[in-house]
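Input structure tokens:
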């Protein structure tokens, strides 16, 4: 059988051809695999890592770092195969809104054949620990099969399909896995609606797939648009799906899939887990656990790992680039003039610290941009700081942003604190048992609007002159 569209194996062949794939043999699933991956992220130009011959497992592989470079992410998003960081950002400009608008033209395509069906295991015989599921961090409460997963749910009334990336710990000696969907996310909302109407909720989970599904599942696709259709719009081809026992779509090009049901009375303790904030989140606590009715997998399947942690981590580069494009797109589409760049900094996990550069055109313009950014659907979840800077500041350069904050912001006048906003139970500042609110600061680090013409000039050379000098003295400056 030929490889299906959106095959992870085809993606890997291409990435290997770029020289951006490393093969790692013989690592142990218990923290060693995760430590190798963590060390890789901290290197300059980190590669994707394909782990095989995992200690104790004759088959089964784990991929990490899939979206951790401009070239890999550019290929994943169908933007080009030879992009650098600047080229990727330029290629992404305006794309999120176009993908959202085009998603309706790329509904999933139902198929009946797939290599995924080579191995079908009925619920009572399922053992997730037959796969080399890692314990990623030393402080994790267990082995997490769901890091780069896609959890597929539906709205019981509208049939709307959602795909989210939620952490999943193997429990009950491999017979089940918890799904820890963050309250407020579409997957959690769908599950609650099913519980209220039918007493149980259908769910499908893919554990290995083309990384475009990691991208769509891990970022805020607009409400009402299926992540599978959005992925189709990105790739320019419909995502093939099978129909399983629950009626939910099963990605036909996946490597490993389970399907089943969640029930409000089937809970298992899970956690803690090393989260994207860089801290272990909370204590061990109950979460919904799946009643698995079937598991499907290819021979020698590849699981897509995307373990979070202190930035930089597996998907922090992807989230930074994608969310920056989504935020900038949303501001432009809202009709805000003068926006130059938005950047959701990787050191803040792509969520906590956002900078926006703008050319202020009227009094209050910078504050308007800051407050809009802080509450945009693409940025609202667990944002903590929004900094608005002038057009001469590169919002992606943290040194420049901090310089602008240090020299153009009067803390007594230019910082607005907004309480009671959308936080997260993953917030290390959240007190145990408290509702997950947070506050955020909107920082106006632009030159005062009424002093723009008289504000002290920046003591650096004219950019065009500096460029000409750089050309003239290129050998000496190399």
């Amino acid at each position: 059988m030929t490889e299906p569209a959106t095959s992870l194996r085809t993606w890997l062949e291409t990435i290997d051809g770029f020289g951006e794939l490393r093969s790692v043999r013989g690592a142990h699933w218990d923290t060693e695999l995760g430590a190798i991956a963590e060390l890789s992220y901290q290197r300059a130009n980190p590669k994707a890592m394909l782990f095989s011959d995992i200690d104790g497992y004759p088959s089964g592989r784990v991929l990490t770092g899939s979206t951790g470079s401009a070239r890999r992410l550019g290929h994943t998003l169908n933007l080009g195969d030879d992009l650098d960081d600047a080229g990727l950002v330029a290629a992404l400009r305006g794309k999120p809104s176009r993908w959202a608008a085009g998603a309706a033209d790329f509904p999933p395509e139902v198929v009946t054949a797939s290599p995924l069906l080579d191995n079908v295991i009925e619920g009572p015989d399922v053992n997730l620990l037959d796969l080399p599921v890692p314990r990623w961090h030393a402080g994790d409460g267990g082995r997490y099969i769901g890091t780069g997963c896609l959890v597929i749910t539906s709205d019981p009334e509208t049939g709307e399909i959602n795909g989210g990336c939620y952490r999943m710990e193997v429990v009950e000696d491999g017979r089940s896995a918890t799904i820890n969907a963050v309250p407020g996310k579409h997957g959690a909302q769908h599950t609650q609606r099913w519980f209220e109407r039918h007493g149980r909720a259908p769910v499908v989970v893919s554990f290995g797939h083309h990384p475009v599904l990691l991208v769509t599942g891990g970022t805020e696709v607009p409400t009402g648009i299926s992540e599978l259709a959005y992925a189709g719009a990105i790739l320019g081809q419909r995502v093939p799906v099978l129909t399983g026992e629950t009626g939910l779509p099963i990605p036909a090009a996946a490597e490993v899939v389970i399907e089943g049901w969640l029930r409000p009375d089937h809970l298992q303790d899970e956690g803690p887990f090393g989260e994207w904030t860089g801290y272990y989140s909370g204590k061990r606590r109950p979460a919904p656990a799946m009643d698995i009715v079937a598991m499907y997998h290819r021979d020698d399947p590849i699981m897509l790992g995307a373990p979070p942690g202190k930035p930089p981590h597996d998907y922090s580069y992807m989230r930074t680039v994608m969310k920056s494009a989504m935020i900038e797109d949303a501001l432009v589409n809202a009709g805000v003039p003068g926006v130059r760049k938005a950047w959701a900094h990787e050191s803040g996990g792509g969520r906590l610290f956002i900078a926006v550069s703008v050319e202020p055109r009227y009094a209050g313009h910078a504050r308007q941009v800051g407050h809009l950014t802080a509450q945009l659907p693409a940025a609202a979840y667990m944002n903590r700081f929004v900094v608005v800077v002038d057009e001469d500041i590169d919002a992606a350069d943290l040194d420049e942003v901090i310089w602008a904050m240090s020299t153009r912001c009067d803390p007594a006048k230019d910082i607005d604190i907004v309480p009671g906003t959308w936080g997260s139970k993953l917030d290390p500042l959240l007190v145990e048992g408290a509702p997950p609110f947070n506050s955020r600061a909107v920082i106006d680090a632009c030159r005062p609007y009424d002093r723009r013409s008289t504000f002290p000039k920046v003591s650096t050379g004219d950019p065009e002159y500096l460029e000409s000098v750089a050309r003239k003295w290129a050998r000496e400056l190399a």
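DSSP finds 14 helices and 21 strands in the chain. The two ends are 53 Å apart (CA to CA).
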